[in-house]
Task: structure prediction
Amino acid sequence: MKILKNYKELSSTVADIVEAQIKEQSKLVLPTGSTPLGLYDELVKRKLDWSLVLTFNLDEYLMNIDHPYSYHSYMKKNLFDRTNIYPNNCHFPFRPTLSFEDKMIKGRGIDLCILGIGSNGHIAFNEPGSTFDSRTRVVDLSLQTLQDNSRFFDSVEDVPKQAITMGLGTIMESKKIVLMVNGTNKLTILNVAMNGEVTEKVPASILQKHNNVEVYYCD
Result:
């Protein structure tokens, strides 16, 4: 794990990694939430050529994709509409989920996957108890996740109760994984995930089994 001085350095460091992949015309897996906002701002400032890049988002709520709080809207607002990426090159999990996975696997597969971690150890929307070989699928969100994500909505009652998420097995097929973690409130679960038992009770712990994972943390 690399401990960085502040959020700006965290965002810039991961942006360096993403920029290198963009220049290689890569397939990227991208997250949402508050942690990657600085990353996306930094990437936009660099005025990179996204025209040959394919992106795949980790998850999406089961809701109207045009809703202002959908992850489609989030990505358009914070990255896609601010770059020259082609809309047809931006992919989100959808039904049937096999079609989404086929697009990822086709060719050389995913080059780089950027992840965050939830307060209960989830990555993407793979809640505790998700099997390590899970694929893209519809999931029920835990009460903890609903409460954590309510900061993006008017109230916890407005948070969708289900989502479609990339599975743990799918994520682990990425050639390289970068885990971004920001805030002392995540430090305990990060330590458990990276140094504790590899268990489905802590979905992020599966990352210990990947041979190319980099973890970046700042307070």
About this structure: The longest strand covers residues 176-182. The beta strands are 2-3, 27-30, 54-57, 59-61, 90-91, 112-115, 137-140, 162-165, 176-182, 213-218. The chain is about 30% helix and 20% strand.
